[in-house]
Amino acid sequence: MLPAERIFHAVPAGIARYLQLVLNVALLLLGLILVSFLGKETWHLARVLLQPVTDNSKYSMVAGLMVYFLYFEFIALIVKYFQAGYHFPLRYIIYIGITAIVRLIIVEHPSSHDVLLYAGAILMMIMTLWLCNSPRQKRE
Question: Which of 34, 43, 45, 79 has the fewest other C-beta atoms within 10 Å?
């Protein structure tokens, strides 16, 4: 047994349970904060929807929707963490990454070169999703 392995085997199970409890409480607090921000974003979208339509309001609506989906996905990720036995599913993290890059493209209006790079990053994430969901991976 390597020296590092001896150290990790020497850690009492009580410490691991305590750290898991701290992590769970922190994630619950983060979830509550995200729910409050989701409510705030819902209120903002309702106000934008009820005002007269301008180019700026359309832009604000699309940007708000993308942020709304990001909050929603982070809350879903926290819920899945608890449902999956304290494990973050990889595909949800990839979904959040794809949504974040799409929001970046829409909100920041980068150069065409940057958009091409971001599209390549999205393509790589989609390929990763495909690989993770392939029947061969599900068997292992």
Answer: 43
List for the chain the helix, strand, coil content (%; round to 5). 85, 0, 15
Residue 98's nearest CA partner among 75, 77, 81, 120 is 120
For 58-117, the pLDDT digits (tens) are 777 888 888 888 898 899 999 999 998 888 888 889 999 999 999 888 888 778 899 999
Closest by Cα among 119, 40, 103, 26 to 70: 103
The model's pLDDT over 7-20, given as tens digits with 9 standing for 90+, comes to 556 567 778 888 88
Contact status, residue 98 vs residue 70, Cβ threshold 8 Å:
no
What is the CB-side half-sphere exposure of residue 70 using CA atoms within 13 A?
A: 16
The pair of structure tokens assigned to 29 is: 């607090």
Residue pair 137/131 in contact by the 8 Å Cβ criterion: yes
